[in-house]
TrEMBL record:
Compartments where found: Cell envelope
Signal peptide coordinates: 1-20
GO molecular function per UniProt: peptide transmembrane transporter activity
PROSITE patterns according to UniProt: PROKAR_LIPOPROTEIN
Gene3D superfamilies: Dipeptide-binding Protein, Domain 3, Periplasmic binding protein-like II
Protein's name in the database: Peptide/nickel transport system substrate-binding protein
Domain Solute-binding protein family residues, every copy: 77-441
Gene Ontology CC entries for this record: ATP-binding cassette (ABC) transporter complex; cell envelope; periplasmic space
Length: 526
């Protein structure tokens, strides 16, 4: 059965864009200015990159530079503030970057090798709780050679290091404007990105204007962008309908997308574009729980879950079944869970349990967060409960808590089974395998698997050609299938809907699902 491609069911579950509005034209029809107003429910939590490991990246991508980044259409890091970057050894332990000439920050300070070293070093020195310092685990030290050369010395081979440098967390900041020891909190930004932050009102708006001194890969197709922040999706959609904003990203429900796709919306001049996303949803099983700790129980659940029904009923076709922890669009993606279990099969699930001596319905409690992944999370778990109980093999109790207390609970191992989501730091299969293993697994429970952590991942990190390590990642995914400590459910996709007067929507979202505001423009005539 064919289903429409995916999108999270609420603001926190997808990066969505809805573009509309009227062109700003002179009487002669010539373009006089290019200004775009974007609405979003994704307000930054900080303006300082050293504290940012969340949706703050979306503003930062547009006002800061990184040494390397992801130009539209690229899933591998390419030069931005750097003229070039490369590993200079065969073991991927020394990464060197040469800066572009003439770079400077918005306060006039020179952006040189010393500023790059300062920007990266302060992340580790501040060590902000919940910040991006954990991404620099393989970094030993940063060395400068003259004004334009930076060398990153790593403690071990790590071919993913360029991907880490490409994240907005590694944005370059002016040393004179940012303390080495604390987070900047004056509501201002001193960067070298495509735009300058002209003004910022927390919870209200950010005014961006074109940076006249910018030197980087971004081809800016507008002169200025206003980002308006909304608490909920309904007001942002209302603002769009009233032509108070031109665009929305992170602010539409699945119902809105379905309406637009079906041309049921009253704004008939809208068009919608779909691209592959990389965020995923999955179940986590607690190995210390008497029931969930039994691999037969986990395998039986894997045999019963009907992902097609889940995305059709709950997400109205705006989510895509996922059969691997590495989603579509990422190198190394497989369908390992489908290969192992095929279509949902109650008889097969019953046999799995019977072989383990389990003949009575298994009682389990499933937990989920009420305010993290959108309004469709509760219906999603209702559907999972229905599927498992209709087999006669399970009795499921559903419980939920707000994210903060929910997170405290799963990190203490209090939940037998719970739902999580993962928004990748960078588009590489490593970032969908490594975070789930080891003593610091993002699931909150240690998951020790030496073949992956001590053999397969170290092998892949020695190889800068990421396409050459697919066999190792395929093997890692097979191990995850055998253990079923995590069970992938679905992955998101990104949508850009636009009015006839707006262009660039299909190019505006990068592989990190971050909106590249510079791609949006008004057409000269429509």
């Amino acid at each position: 059965m064919f289903y429409r491609a995916s999108l999270q069911a609420a603001a926190a579950l997808a990066s969505l864009s809805l573009l509309a509005g009227c062109g700003l034209l002179s009487d002669s029809g010539s373009e006089v200015e290019q200004k775009i107003v974007v609405g979003t429910t994704s307000e930054p939590s900080t303006l300082d990159p050293a504290a940012a490991w969340d949706n703050s990246w979306e503003l930062m991508r547009n006002v800061f530079q990184t040494l390397v980044s992801f130009p539209t259409g690229s899933t591998t890091p390419e030069p931005d503030a750097a003229e070039w970057c490369k590993f200079t050894d065969t073991t991927s332990t020394s990464y060197r970057c040469k800066l572009r000439e003439g770079l400077k920050f918005s306060n006039g300070d020179k952006l040189d090798a010393a500023a790059v070293k300062y920007s990266i070093d302060r992340i580790s020195e501040i060590n902000f709780k919940g910040g991006p310092v954990g991404m620099l685990g393989s970094l030993d030290r940063v060395e400068t050679k003259g004004d334009d050369m930076v060398v990153f010395h790593l403690t071990k081979p790590d071919a993913t290091f360029p991907f880490i440098l490409a994240t907005p967390a590694m944005s370059l900041v002016a040393p004179s404007a940012y303390s080495r020891h604390k987070i900047r909190s004056d509501g201002k930004i001193t960067g070298s990105g495509p735009y300058l932050l002209d003004s910022y009102k927390p919870g209200k708006r950010a005014e961006l204007v074109k940076n006249p001194d910018y030197k980087g890969f971004a081809d800016r197709k507008n002169d200025a962008v206003t980002i308006r922040y909304f608490k909920e999706s309904a007001p942002v959609v209302a603002a769009l309908r009233k032509n108070q904003i031109d665009a929305i990203y992170r602010g539409l429900t699945a119902e809105e997308v379905v309406s637009l796709e079906g041309n049921q919306d009253k704004d008939s001049n809208l068009q919608i574009v779909e691209t592959v996303g990389a965020d995923i949803r999955f179940l986590v099983f607690n190995p210390k729980d008497p029931a969930a700790g039994n691999v037969a129980v986990r395998r039986a659940i894997a045999q019963l879950v009907d992902r097609d029904a889940l995305v059709a009923k709950v997400y109205q076709g705006t989510a895509e079944p996922l059969y691997s922890m590495v989603p579509k669009g990422i190198a190394g993606h497989t369908t390992s869970f489908f290969d192992a279990y095929g279509d949902p099969d109650q008889d097969e699930a019953k046999q799995i349990l019977a072989k383990a001596g389990i003949t009575k319905p298994v009682e389990l409690t499933f937990w989920f967060a009420t305010d993290r992944y959108g309004s469709s999370t509760a219906p999603e778990f209702d559907e999972l409960k229905r599927q498992l109980e209709s087999s006669g093999l399970f009795r499921i109790t559903l419980k939920s808590k707000p994210w903060k207390t929910f997170q405290e609970g799963f990190t203490k191992g209090q939940y037998p089974v719970f739902g999580r989501g993962w928004f990748p730091d960078f588009p590489d299969p490593d970032n969908f395998i490594a975070p789930f293993l080891g003593k610091d697994s993002i699931t909150g429970m240690p998951y020790m698997k030496n073949e992956i952590t001590k053999e397969l991942l170290p092998q892949t990190r020695k190889e800068s050609d990421r396409g050459a390590v697919s066999k190792q990642f395929e093997r890692a995914q097979k191990i995850l299938v055998d253990d079923v400590r995590v069970l992938p459910l679905w992955q998101g996709k990104l949508y850009v809907a636009s009015g006839e007067d707006i262009g660039g929507g299909e190019r505006a979202l990068d592989p990190q699902t971050v909106m590249q505001m510079w791609e949006l423009y008004r057409k000269a005539s429509w």
